[in-house]
Amino acid sequence: MLAAAVETEPGEEPLLPLALESQRLWPDFARELEGASGISVNYRDEGTLVVALNRDDTAQLRHSYEFQKGLGLDLQWLTAAEARQREPHLKPGTAAAVFSPRDHQVENRLLGQALAVAARHAGVELIEHCPVREVIVAGGRAAGVVTERGRNSADVVVLAAGAWSREIAGIPPAYLPPVRPIKGQMLALQMDPAAPLLRHVLWLPHGYLVPRRDGRLVIGGTVEERGFDTSLTAGGLFALIEGAWRAIPAIEELPIAETWVGFRPGSRDDAPMLGPSGLDRLVIATGHHRNGILLTPVTAAVVSAYILRERLPEIARPFSPERFAGTDPVRPRLAIVGGKT
User: Fold this and answer.
1) Are 332 and 307 within 8 A, CB to CB?
2) Most buried residue among 80, 167, 277, 337 by CB atoms closer than 10 A?
3) Torsion angle of C-alpha atoms 256, 261, 262, 264, degrees rounded to 10
4) Which domains does the chain have, with CATH numbers?
5) How do 150-153 and 132-138 pair as beta strands?
6) Model's pTM, two decimal places?
7) Cβ neighbours of residue 150 under 8 Å, at least 6 residues apart?
8) pLDDT, tens digit, for every residue of 21-68?
């Protein structure tokens, strides 16, 4: 979900410019990636609906709507009838909705495949199923990595291991990013691709629904502070299914296609960490929490700009990892000499 508008909550105002810039980059990024890879990432621009099912939901939705409109975001208040015109399978009695025309979606699995193909076409060597055991630190700088295949030297090391970023050895504790796993249970139901129950991404009082072009209806997601617990629980899946059923009763006839658990990388302030780690030539790109896909284009632009120009772009300065170390979040510490990364 590329939902810079409807996901913005009080306290997250500093993140909004970065999210909106990445959202702006997404259409051209998707087209360029599809051209380079030959793989469609199913970028869809139908927009997003946020639904209120009862009076209490409506009060909360109105509060969020007025807050987000106050930030200048493009949102439209819909009556119940207008909401059901857009999504006829919404339950009768739906109270109200908000439509966000600029909040779109992309198929994250296809995105991963397309990025891999495009990278290889550009001459990048991708080594899969080969865990990095250690970052080599020598002479006060990151100098490479150790994997199951041995040692690989590098001019710059980019730590982009998501929720696992603290699990890699070799980095002095003072330079490890403060990132933790935030567990999310999810499932997918199977719709008829020729007659899907939904067209828009649908945000609910508890959870969200994402229709895919192959007919899958993704339902997510729990938010749990349970470390790397991979278990699916009856309570977690029940909460997801019940929340979806209350909005779209017709889902009860759909078969379950898949269930899974994922781990969002959360920082101390739930904002991304982009740029200098404080250790020479170790660059950080993690901590995106629930906005990893949304922030993909701007993350790529920021990190590459920092490596190549030795300066963090203005829009990313509030998100330097050094904000957690009490050091200057602006001054670059890399001396890039080129070569393999």
Assistant:
1) no
2) 277
3) 110
4) 1-41+102-126 (no CATH), 48-99 (no CATH), 127-179+269-324 (3.50.50.60)
5) unpaired
6) 0.92
7) none
8) 999 999 999 999 999 999 999 999 999 999 999 999 999 999 999 999
